[in-house]
Amino acid sequence: MTMLNGSRPALAITVGEPAGIGPEIAIRAAWALREEANCVLVGDAAFLALTAGLIDPSIRLSALSIQALRNGGLPHFGKERLAVVDVPLAAHVTPGTLDAENGRAVLATLDLAIEGAQNGWFEGIVTAPLQKSTINDAGVAFSGHTEYLAEKTGTPKVVMMLAGQPAGGQPYLRVALATTHLPLKDVPAALTRDNLAQVIDIIDADLKSKFGIAAPRILVTGLNPHAGENGYLGREEIEVITPVLEAARARGIDARGPYPADTLFQPKYLEDADCVLAMYHDQGLPVLKHATFGRGINVTLGLPFVRTSVDHGTALDLAAQGLGLADCGSMVEAIRAAMQMARARRA
Q1: Which CATH architecture has domain 10-155+303-346?
Q2: What are the binding residues for substrate?
Q3: Where does a divalent metal cation bind (predicted)?
Q4: Which CATH class name applies to 159-289?
Q5: Residues annotated in a binding site for a divalent metal cation
Q6: Per residue in 304-317, pLDDT tens?
């Protein structure tokens, strides 16, 4: 059953690792944006109610069982409260202390959010940070949100993109990655023509369908210093990247480059770009995180639904110090981005 509930997009907010800052920032951000989005928290209802009461006694939560959701879809909840789909934890939560007994419950929140997005209950998923080690310690091989979402939806290829608004009125920055969590020595071999072409196609398609950008402009970095300097510093630009960009332009995609990464990230170039495609993780993300940290978000491109996330981890040390210290700015921006993407998909 699809329940779009007018102009307020229904979004599943998975609360992440319970011992980290995820539950707090999810509650704070969802409550702050309740006028704009129907934010449905996915986690242990009793634990979230306790946490919400400690944050602000005026926060109102209403629990909903998984079975009720499956039987009737997402009911309409007004702006005066937040819905919580109850996914019970197995063990008591001590802030800042990981417990493998809760690993499978954390994963179950993701499973429920995916099920809901596929069934039309939710128009998108926003994920708080989780701890990979907890899930692996629970006996489930898990390498991260992005990979898990791709596997569970049968998506053969996804693309990681981070985005955010730099300070000082500089152009909104989107940085996608051709390769993600690979040792640097393995990156050149992973940059095949087929792989890079798929990445560019996904970026172009999602900028159109999920961001509402009619004619996306994609600026692409080189792999090597100075974009290879005509082959003297590496031949990947000549043998892989340039041919792929030429073929993309022949398909009608506005993909330009390859540009030297050390000079590309300047306002005079970025103001003419909808996305920068970097060749590896630490080529593009340090620039973006320096410019936007605390306001940046993570977006998974290529999925059959909207998925955004925060740009930081579980901050167990901060959680151990108590509530009120975590900054929910990135979660607020992740929810806002998911709202905008959901509306773009409607259009």
Answers
A1: 3-Layer(aba) Sandwich (3.40)
A2: 145-146, 289, 298, 307
A3: 181, 226, 281
A4: alpha beta
A5: 181, 226, 281
A6: 999 999 989 999 99
